[in-house]
Amino acid sequence: MSNIETVRHSLAHVLAAAVQRLYPDVKFGIGPAIDDGFYYDFDFSEPLNEESLKAIQSEMKKITKQGLDIERSELSREAALEFFKDQPYKVELINGLPEGEIISVYKLGDFTDLCMGPHVENTKHLRQRAYKLSSVAGAYWRGSSDNPMMQRIYAWAFMEKPELKDYIARREEAMKRDHRRLGEELELFTVSELVGKGLPLFLPKGATIRRILERFIVDEEVSRGYLHVYSPDLGHKSLYEASGHWQHYKDSMYPPMDLEGQEYVLRPMTCPHHFMMYKSKLRSYRDLPMRYAELATQFRRELSGTLTGLIRVMSFHLADSHIICRMDQMEEEFSAAVELADYVMRALGIRDVVSFRASLRDDEKGKYVDDDALWEKAESMFLGALDKLDLEYEIGRGEAAFYGPKLDIQARNVMGKEDTIITIQIDFVLPARFDISYTASDGTKERPVTIHRSSIGCIERTMAFLIEHYGGAFPSWFAPVQVRVLTLVDAVDDYAKDVIVKLRKAGLRVEEDLRNESIGKKIREGRLMRIPYLVIIGNSEMEAGTIAVRNRDTGEQTTLSLDDFIAGATGEVDDFSLKLSAGDVA
Amino acid sequence: MSNIETVRHSLAHVLAAAVQRLYPDVKFGIGPAIDDGFYYDFDFSEPLNEESLKAIQSEMKKITKQGLDIERSELSREAALEFFKDQPYKVELINGLPEGEIISVYKLGDFTDLCMGPHVENTKHLRQRAYKLSSVAGAYWRGSSDNPMMQRIYAWAFMEKPELKDYIARREEAMKRDHRRLGEELELFTVSELVGKGLPLFLPKGATIRRILERFIVDEEVSRGYLHVYSPDLGHKSLYEASGHWQHYKDSMYPPMDLEGQEYVLRPMTCPHHFMMYKSKLRSYRDLPMRYAELATQFRRELSGTLTGLIRVMSFHLADSHIICRMDQMEEEFSAAVELADYVMRALGIRDVVSFRASLRDDEKGKYVDDDALWEKAESMFLGALDKLDLEYEIGRGEAAFYGPKLDIQARNVMGKEDTIITIQIDFVLPARFDISYTASDGTKERPVTIHRSSIGCIERTMAFLIEHYGGAFPSWFAPVQVRVLTLVDAVDDYAKDVIVKLRKAGLRVEEDLRNESIGKKIREGRLMRIPYLVIIGNSEMEAGTIAVRNRDTGEQTTLSLDDFIAGATGEVDDFSLKLSAGDVA
């Protein structure tokens, strides 16, 4: 059986053959296999619509039923140029091929395409395969805005029908959970073109989540002996020249600003600021480890076309830390940093979708700091610590930073895609570059080592992940609104207001809905906002001095005393307990 | 009797005359009266030191004893140039005088100075006056770094000796309390030349104060119905063109940064960001008031020479808010904003050193938005609300913003100098400029009004004020360290550690000093750090299961149970109680 790449690529030819039958004047671009199927770029004289896609897909079915051979042959450059003379994009591709390169074409019925292959031998092998034309989008020829805009037909393709069905279902779920869509629906954040595309504005509800997560991580870190600080968003360009960021990292940095002849840049990282704090005083071996931490604003230059939601932004906020310690403290500090990240993932309820990747150096010379003894010591400490922590991890050889090994913590989203959300890096280089030192017990000057690490990651990216993971139905401890109080009749308003005051006094985040609307509508709206508890108050509750509570996650409605409810709801906040699994979105 | 300005100015001439006697080759600059005395700029061939100042001051005393006349006369330009031909700075001044200006000189014994006067008639009138040469500093001629550096002799001068004595005492106290000095001594913040002069780095202890104040104000505002948000530190330049900031305020803004042909600027204010949030949805009369609030990073371009400590910085953090409301809600919202500021000043313990200034428009046309009816309505609401709040306030006519009246809250420092720390402004203009609106109950579109306000001011400036006001001896609720545990002997270490765990569990910020040092040294160091409570543990405390507590503010030491101490210390935090008055610095 052919592999899925070959199937997808062959289906792209079938698509092009079908298009040729229906649109004889079409000009062909290219049609590769991609992660979830394939696409083909065409230059049509008219725009396509959903109907056109249906027609093309039935034509494709005919071709696979017909069982046509897909035949390879080779042409000289001259013959190829002659053959494709009415296809300007193909001519451009042929002219771009290096001298002497074999030019192969594949013929499928009346359709012949310039192509390297491989393909299935006959379209009958595609009959049982599962595919669906999914969309049409504009795409510049060869990705450059100087070239003509073509129409790209996308398709999903898998070996078996159940795979495709499952993929489509997961995609639909993912689209419902898209953090940009939920961000708008749940009023978490907004993006204003006038402010800037990669500069999200956190609306009150999103800001509440962010504040809760920020306070959670700061408090947790402070209780673990981190020294939280604040440092400015910018610095002299020379600061980043000293750190080496300017030389190595300039393309990702904002352009410098000239103030009275001095150049300042927005910071891409906080290491230099924290090192300057360390250097504000003489330090002794007794002062170490010093764990500087900060919820730091950082700035990265990103291409405007890549900016999206909270994932890729122009300015973000990292729960950053630089642990400056003695070599003999490194292992313990590294383990504690991993343990903290593990704890945070558990508190956020995402430990099950997280995996660990240990990035080590490979044999490539020049890619890493040249000190074999140091590397061996560091890597054996690093792996030893991971093993002691009893973590499952993969090894990524050749993925270390140039200054030391690092642990990447990967989170897997609803589509199964993995993204790094936290990194813990060991660094032997920057302490020397900034010439930081401590006085050892024998009075000599020693160089400390550093761990760069995060604990909850970049707040924007982590929030995007949490929004999608929970589909907006956040655990009560960081839900922006925990309780909404709904009334059945006006007569209970005073009682409801009294309940609200008591809930707020207990520290719960409460909204009210005392409008003159049907209880059905009120409940529906509360569910749409994914509020963990809807407290429903009618005459019977008022008379009995109770409340009725609808639980978002179980869907159950129970009547209980206000005190019992408060005890349960605040207890859930205190122990980060999560009644919800990722699959239960309302 | 002459007024103090004349006395100070005459003393400057006496100073110059004395210098001429001791340094015949000296070249004279200028010598004006200033707020607390006078100065004179000289070009000496040698640097002055403290001894030189003493010699000059005794020579001045001789001159006042001699009772010399100070005689005015007038010279033609030619005669003046001839007379001062050996004094290049005077020649430059004469050449700078407009044609036709009367050139007057004052003669005091052998010394004659180019001067407008007035002066006392005879130096005997200066005999009873109190003055002291205080310091020498370098100063560029006419304040420009293109000119030669001169030596400026500063002096304090008052009518009576007790005034001078009192002034010097207050100055010494102020210097001890200088937030830059205490910032370093108490390790609150540091400034690194490599990062940038106006870009302070908050060290762990200063960051703790800042975090406590930030959480305090955010929680207080949220409980009062403010909608806390986060918005980015920068935006498209066009955003600030729309708001008018770019046109009116460009010189105080950072230079734009070009990213892919788009210009971005660091924000000087948050109004446009908050307005964009308001505009992210249609708003109805029922949604108002909306009180957007943010702990906002803001950027102002300041001349590097003016940057100092936490007072004048290049980037600061304002507890900012924009209250968007209907005209009929304006009075209530304004009053609530004033009431909040008043509450905050009380919680910080500085209500007694705060005064209010109501800034209204005057008759000058063109300086204010041209709508008399609106102004009359606004000012009468504004003053009416202040009167109802029963606040004492001054009126500053002609000090309104161009878009409406404002209330300035002034704090008076140890030297009696007033600075604005909080402003509450009424604004009729920006809502129209950003075209923000709401749907009224009759379905028509209406324009809301806005209040720009702060509550705790700019965190850097407020912290600078608090550091100086309390001389670093902060109320326990925001002291970075509330308790330090000191041991008398090693034998009690375990008991002390147990006490520390319990104190931390109670939420107190605790340091330990278990070093093998004398208790006298440990107490002295704890006092120097202005820690509210020193808990002292020896064998007798361990045996009795008690602790000895030394109270920073009363200086008393008492023995009590841990539970009683915890109850007292946490209670003090909860009600912001302050045992300390500003005069009691250790």
Structure description:
The structure is a homodimer of 586-residue chains. Chain A has 586 residues and is α+β, with helices and mostly antiparallel strands. The first copy, chain A, has three domains: 3-174, Threonyl-tRNA Synthetase, Chain A, domain 2 (2-Layer Sandwich); 184-470, 2-Layer Sandwich (BirA Bifunctional Protein, domain 2); 476-574, Rossmann fold. Chain A is 36% helix and 26% strand. The first copy, chain A, contains 18 helices and 28 strands. In chain A, the strands form seven sheets. In chain A, strands 11-15-16-23-20-19-17-18 form an eight-stranded mixed β-sheet. In chain A, helix 15 links the parallel strand 24 (483-487) and strand 25. In chain A, helix 1 (4-22) crosses helix 2 (50-66) and helix 11 (330-348) crosses helix 12. The first copy, chain A, is globular, with a radius of gyration of 30 Å. The first copy, chain A, starts with a helix and ends in a 12-residue tail after the last helix. The relative contact order of chain A is 0.08. At the A-B interface, strand 10, helix 7, strand 11, strand 12 and helix 8 of A face strand 10, helix 7, strand 11, strand 12 and helix 8 of B.
